[in-house]
Amino acid sequence: MSNLHVNSRYEKRDKRRKTNIVLNTLITIVTLLILVIGYQLMFGGSDAGKTAKYNEQPDIKLANEQNSNEKAIADNEEEIDKTDKELDENSVKEADSEEIVDEETITEDPFEQATITEGEPGSGIVETIENPGWSPVGTTQTEHNSTNYTKGSKDWNEMTKALSYATGIPESDMIIWFLGNNGGPNDAVGTISPKDQSVKYKVYITWVENQGWKPTKIEKVN
Domain DUF1510: where (predicted)? Predict the structure, then answer.
């Protein structure tokens, strides 16, 4: 009887131990599953987001490149329009001053080919200057029936160019003491000096049809 009782208790303990092993194993498996599922939920979603974001990058890059190309095209068209406008303005300026003497020509030595004669004592003329190389300064006038001595008129502006051309005094540095008729409808005379008044000239000019005003003689006066 005693042995049977011992064996029965041993069997019960053995069954309980096996049951605990099975339960512990199941608990471990369930815990591992929970950990794996939790990891996937926590980090797998982030990776998926990164993947989605990465997949979107080519589209974003393509959109940026397209915007850059459109901006470059717009800038290029604006530059072309600006260049065309400048060319048109230059063409107008060239047409307006096609035959008019420019500033560089004016500032060249105006007396290089000149004949200089000393004035008579007491005449108030220091010397007389005549230059066979002088030519008309050009004109934008299609008709010239009479001379307009009003300041700012085409005649006035073109006569001023002739005075500057003959003497080498730039218009921006010129004082016009007198500019008026010299006895004929196509003859004029101007008395000018530089702004420092270091010298004073009396310049005789004449109108050449379709070519503008031409200097004929300069008198350097006291």
Answer: 129-220
Instruction: Give the span between the Cα atoms of 56 and 45, in whole angstroms.
Output: 16
- Band (32; pLDDT cuts 50, 70, 90): confident
Distance CA 219, CA 52 (A): 92
Cα–Cα distance, 15 to 175 (Å, whole number):
131
Q: Cα(79)–Cα(161) distance, rounded to whole angstroms?
A: 36
Amino acid letter, 199: V
- Could you tell me which of 174, 172, 177, 162 has the C-alpha nearest to residue 221? 177
For residue 3, the one-letter residue type is N
Please give the pLDDT value at position 18: 78
CA distances from 8 to 19, 20, 60 (A): 17, 18, 77
86 residue type, one letter: E
Count of Cβ atoms closer than 10 Å to residue 40 Cβ = 11
pLDDT in tens, 119-149: 899 889 999 999 999 999 999 998 888 999 9
The residue type at 99: E
Residue 73 three-state SS: helix
DSSP symbol at 40: I
Distance CA(219)–CA(116), nearest Å, equals: 10
Q: For residue 156, which amino acid is it? A: W
Displacement of CA 178 from its chain's centroid (Å)? 41
Would you say the pTM of this structure is higher than 0.70? no
